[in-house]
Amino acid sequence: MKITAQEEYGIRCLLQLACCGGRVRTIPEIAESESLSKEYVAKLMRVLRRGKLVRSVRGRTGGYVLARPPAQITLSEALTVLGGKLWESSFCKRHPGRARVCRRISDCGVRVVWRRVQEAVEAVLGGVTLQDFFEALAAPPGSDSQPQAGLPGG
Fold it and tell me: What is the pLDDT of residues 62-106, one digit of tens each?
């Protein structure tokens, strides 16, 4: 499994919004904080808005905020919005090879493995919220607040 640049930077943009306590952040502010181009941040914010993870605030003091509290947005949900699932059950129907229907549709051992991997990924990332991630990153080194398994430093 590889994390794409869009997934990595999209998560970082979400964390920029999670860390400011609901304050509206502009594209230039996020771009500056993450050393990204304004154009790329604008693209990521469009993807996140369409995925209903962020909402735009119009006006002179407009920008972006999280659509829900950080404790209600999981990394699994964010990665799915930014890049899709690792494996989806519809894969076999979309990619049957040269046949109209995959010849292994009823006895595919590979599909069983991918389904288990996807379930494991969702179990781990579905249990980690932006709030968890932000708190783990914000904890000072050597503090009593130890990151949970699966979080940075854990």
Answer: 899 999 999 999 999 999 999 876 656 665 665 555 666 665 555
pLDDT digits 0-9 by tens, 120-153 = 888 888 899 999 987 887 777 666 554 444 444 4
Q: Which CATH class is domain 5-138?
A: mainly alpha
Give me the half-sphere count of Cα atoms (radius 13 Å) on the Cβ side of residue 57.
Answer: 15
What one-character-per-residue DSSP string does the chain give? ----HHHHHHHHHHHHHHTTTT--B-HHHHHHHHT--HHHHHHHHHHHHHTTSEEEE-STT-EEEESS-GGG-BHHHHHHHHH--S--TTHHHH--TTSSS-TTTTT-HHHHHHHHHHHHHHHHHTT-BHHHHHHHHHSPTT-S-PPPTTSTT-
**Residues near 17 by Cβ (< 8 Å), separated by ≥ 6?**
25, 30, 54, 64, 65, 66
